[in-house]
Design brief:
Two copies of one chain form a homodimer.
Chain A (H helix, E strand, L loop, with lengths): L8 H8 L7 E7 L6 E7 L2 E7 L9 H13 L17 E3 L2 E7 L11 H17 L13 H15 L6 H15 L6 E4 L8 E4 L2 E5 L6 E4 H12 L9 H14 L4 H28 L12 H12 L11
Antiparallel strand pairs in A: 1-2, 2-3, 3-5, 4-5, 6-9, 7-8
Chain lengths: 321, 321
């Protein structure tokens, strides 16, 4: 699914000769991430993930992503640590592609997240926000409110083939979000894609956060809203308020939300649901007939959006106003 | 490319509860093998490969393959060792598929095999043949001489679209092999698919032989012929006699070939080239237009066949008659 580029051992050994990580013992292409080629490397000094960046990742953003991982790791977040070569570079070139190595993190991601997992991810997200507060680089969020109308235009003509009156629903929601979107809440580094497959656990203990390739500078509480969408709904699309409370309380033990952030949360959740509804819809409509890969269902996020539209306040997510 | 079936951590942990291999620390789907789903597992007691057998592997053959690996490993061959669960079973069930775990082998496979690699694979093949000599189970080789006419019939009508007069060339070669194929050479367990991607090295030392899913009972020297085809040609399809000599001498240090086996080697090499020409041709012709996966080039084996047809004796492969 995810290995696009084979790397000959002879080329890999030449690449590794610039690093201080011992001798190569084995490497396997792994099915992780959908945008890049990833290998799990074992050398005489440990385990590493080697990533070759395929064309969907903009090369000019790589110093931001690698710098951010290094910054967050140095501040104690359990995230991959980029490995620098002897010239001090974290970004190299292999098989004609930009390439970087990071340390390997143990742990498994939960397919059926529990309340304890939700508490863990809430706390980790808040730690990430605090650890990122003095990161000097910035990156605009292309998938925040200003980017949604462009996605809608790509999908609007055929949206109603996917679900009755989907185009009209999205148009109305888009207008609502654009009109009311809060601009003055605390900003900083957000992960922007902290779904269960990007969070590792050993038992109920969170052991690592990975995949910073959507990270950017945006409203911190919007990142909380993305997590509420990604972690706290059941497979029947019902919202589990116990999980919501666990996630929010886990977050607030590390970084309490302001009254303004709490008040904005239902709206931020609507926006987050709309963002994933739109990107999934565009992917869904771009898949050729008969393709083997089935994209993720956009209607899951349509149903989540319906929940958020009906929410009166942050109480509906499990905590007091 | 190779991961067909995702396994939820919750299901994997339930599966592992029947084994004595400690706690799960991580697992990654790996792009290895094209027939099955493979995961690299790390538990508190080590590293393992977990294989889910997809439909292309006949379930009734699995006890043969697993029993053979266990037998060969017990006799000192560097090959994966099946892990039995507490009930003594090597074959279980996971995600509705037959599933087995084997020990992980370090090493990397050479994309550009050297003379030293060829010597190593020759010796390992001979060790495999000796270690298999008292394995009690049998499995017919469906891809030996009796199976080739069936493959030819699938491909003959369109073979000339792939290469000028390919159908006629194959028909003549098939008739020749069927008429002259040696039936009285030493038989036993053969690997039958010992290509470079199935042999791991650490430096120039062979560290492991994997993928026994074509293993069967057949002429031992035919396995040598498969290896000469797979390891000793350069990318321009020229035969490298130094590599041939290294492979054959490596083999003979462990198991000397008889005069009859030596005499039959050019014919066995023709048959081995024909076998891979035929299976690759069938795959090539069965790929739909516009498919993303490009099958292996059958013409590579057509050119190898031409070399073998011109060979006068085993001297052309680098050793004395």
């Amino acid at each position: 699914m995810a290995v696009y580029t084979d790397v000959a051992v002879e080329d890999l050994e030449a690449f590794l000769a610039d690093y201080d990580i011992g001798n190569l013992l084995s490497y396997k292409g792994i099915a992780e991430g959908v945008e890049n080629t990833n290998f799990l490397l074992h050398t005489s000094s440990g385990y590493f993930i080697l990533t070759l960046y395929e064309k969907r990742v903009a090369t000019h953003d790589l110093p931001f992503f690698l710098g951010l991982m290094e910054h967050l790791h140095a501040r104690g977040l359990n995230c991959p640590q980029p490995v620098r070569n002897r010239a001090g570079e974290a970004l190299g070139k292999l098989a004609k592609r930009p390439a970087a190595m990071v340390t390997f993190l143990e742990g498994v991601w939960p397919r059926r997240p529990s309340v304890a997992h939700c508490a863990g991810v809430g706390a980790a997200l808040a730690k990430l926000h605090l650890a990122g507060s003095d990161f000097p680089m910035k990156r605009k969020n292309a998938l925040s409110v200003a980017g949604w109308s462009g996605l809608y235009q790509q999908a609007s003509a055929r949206a109603d083939n996917v679900h009755r009156n989907l185009s009209g629903t999205i148009a109305a929601e888009l207008a609502y979000c654009e009109k009311h979107w809060p601009e003055n809440l605390p900003h900083g580094i957000i992960h922007a894609d902290l779904f269960p497959d990007n969070v590792f656990f050993l038992g109920s203990e969170l052991s690592g956060v990975i995949d910073f390739y959507f990270a950017c500078t945006d409203t911190l509480a919007y990142d909380v809203a993305i997590c509420l969408n990604a972690w706290c709904f059941e497979t029947d699309h019902s919202f589990n308020v116990t999980k919501g409370r666990a996630l929010l309380q886990g977050y607030e033990k590390v970084r309490p939300l302001s009254a303004q952030e709490r008040a904005a949360l239902p709206l931020l959740c609507r926006g987050a649901a709309l963002r994933f509804l739109l990107t999934r819809l565009v992917d869904w409509l771009s898949v050729p007939a008969g393709a083997l890969v089935r994209p993720k269902d956009p209607i899951e996020y349509y149903r989540k959006l319906r929940f958020h539209q009906a929410a009166a306040s942050v109480r509906d997510y499990g905590i007091e106003e």
